[in-house]
Amino acid sequence: MQDTQAFAPFYQVSQTAATGTLRPSVTVSATAAGANDSARFPDGPTNDCNQIQIANTSVSGFAYVNFGVLRDALTVTAATSAASYPMPPNSTRVVTVHPEVNAASVKMGTGLNAANVIFTRGAGV
Nearest 5°: phi and psi at 25? Predict the structure, then answer.
């Protein structure tokens, strides 16, 4: 049985100055018409926990998210309303992804001009 812990963003420990820093979040400014509004997550520890907190800042529309890998010639498949993870408006969810995942694509629901979706690596729920 696993213990349930609050979501904690990854913290990068400083080796010399004893002052670490939080790993940055990534914000995708997505549109309904965007073919592939995507962003790469900052590199960071992914061996222990492969959890991503998704925050849809739109107050009126769903965001659709697809995860993937950005490296070499690879791209993240464009998110679609029919085949991607739906994020309700003005909400936050934590999902667990495969260790190789390092990026996401986002598409907003039909009729929405643009909204920000924020991705944060971390651990917990």
Answer: -85, 165
* Average pLDDT over every residue of 13-33: 74
Question: What pLDDT sits at residue 10?
Answer: 67
User: Which has the closest alpha carbon to 44: 81, 99, 112?
Assistant: 99
With helix as H, strand as E and coil as C, how does 2-13 read?
Answer: CCCCCCEECEEC
Q: Which residue segments constitute the domains of the chain, with CATH numbers given?
A: 23-123 (2.60.120)
Q: How many CB atoms lie within 10 A of CB 43?
A: 10
Task: State the Cα–Cα distance between residues 45 and 24, nearest whole angstrom.
Answer: 12
The answer to whether 42 and 24 have CB atoms below 8 angstroms apart is: yes
User: Which distant-in-sequence residues (6+ apart) come within 8 Å of 86 by Cβ?
Assistant: 62, 63, 64, 65
Q: What global pTM score does this model have?
A: 0.81
